[in-house]
Amino acid sequence: MRAIDAGLLVCHECHQLNPVDVEAKHQYCSRCGGLIHARRPDSLIRTWALLLTSAILYIPANLLPIMTVNSLGKGSPSTIMGGVLELIHLGMLPIAAVVFIASILVPTFKLVGIALLLYSVQRHQPMSARQRMLMYRFIEWIGRWSMLDIFVIAILVAVVNFGSLASIEAGAGAAAFASVVILTMLAALTFDPRLIWDNTETDHD
Prior knowledge:
54% of the residues lie in helices and 12% in strands. It is of the alpha+beta class. It folds into two domains: 1-38, no CATH class; 42-202, Up-down Bundle (Butyryl-CoA Dehydrogenase, subunit A, domain 3), CATH 1.20.140.
């Protein structure tokens, strides 16, 4: 049974359960005073908007150079995949695997996973609520690891700065990639997981 079926609303801020006041136009939490809703307003629309924007930015994030390594006055820009291939060529397979997973697989999984959640909820697809919740929790948990590449680049740019001898510069791809990560994290936050349970009547466990 859902909380709303029992006449209860959950506060988005402090998670306090509040009895539904059918006579009130706007209801506020009895503990923190925050405005509460049965479901987050325009959750699907906002999530789709953030997701589509991040999908568009995902293209330049992979095509534009993410950083340029200068050594003795010479340097060549490198994309994410170019950096992975270079690491493989140098025999650094573990590091290449970490970069590939964090920079290619994780963002792709998040984009596809959130899109599947939105589509399944809107179209009432025969996917169990348990499967959807597991996917949602995994997307929420894995999102923070997408910033690994940006943290590494930020550290390298700050540490490796020896003038014409050696330096590292962040490229436009880094800004696009960081935007993709932030937007997908916001998309996961704006999605109301309670919408998953609103479709349990058509689910098959």
